[in-house]
Amino acid sequence: MSGDLPEYYFRIRENGATVFRVDTENRQRRIEMEEIAVVNVRNGNVKPHGDRPLTGAEAKVIADWMAARLDTLARRDIDDILRAVDHMNLTTQWAQSKATDAELAEVTDTLLLAMHDLRSVLVRKKADRLIKAQKAAE
């Protein structure tokens, strides 16, 4: 089992991870995890644990993990948005075919405001992209 373990373990936190070095080469043949750093993916900060600086290899492993983590989070964001589109379509079908007047009265204003807000942002962002593309083409 110990031969299959990675050299580093990243315990996911809200904004990043706590990084541990995994050690299985000890007398007791137990898995020991030494905390070496705390990583914040939002601002890119890496804080070594204690007074010991990170080695170049550790810094590279952490940087590679951060890049992979940011990619994973970005893909999840897109997946969440596509799921929201699916849910909007299901909501439309529900409103059209199953919802009672009382249920519609309960959700209509909230849905309309959220949809208006989303539409406003999307239209503004699309206009910005079109203007930027037009300026780049000139």
Characterize the structure shown:
This protein is of the alpha+beta class. It has 2 domains: 2-98, no CATH class; 100-138. Helices cover 57% and strands 19% of the residues. It has 2 helices and 4 strands. The protein has helices at 56-97, 101-137; strands at 8-13, 16-23, 32-40, 46-48. The model has no long low-confidence stretch (mean pLDDT 94).
Separation of the first and last Cα atoms: 61 Å
**What is the strand tally?**
4
The number of domains: 2
Q: What is the ordering of alpha helices and beta strands? A: EEEEHH
Q: What assembly state would you assign to the polypeptide chains in this entry?
A: single chain
Percent range for β-strand residues:
15-25%
**Helicity, as a percent range:** 55-70%
The shape, in one word, is elongated
Strand order of the largest sheet: 1-2-3-4
Evaluate the radius of gyration: 24 Å
What class do helices, strands and sheet pairing give? alpha+beta
Task: Give average pLDDT, whole number.
Answer: 94
Low-confidence stretches: none
Per DSSP, the total helix count is 2
What's the main sheet like?
4 strands, antiparallel
Key attributes of the depicted protein:
138 residues; alpha+beta; 2 domains; 4-stranded antiparallel sheet; 4 strands; 57% helix; elongated
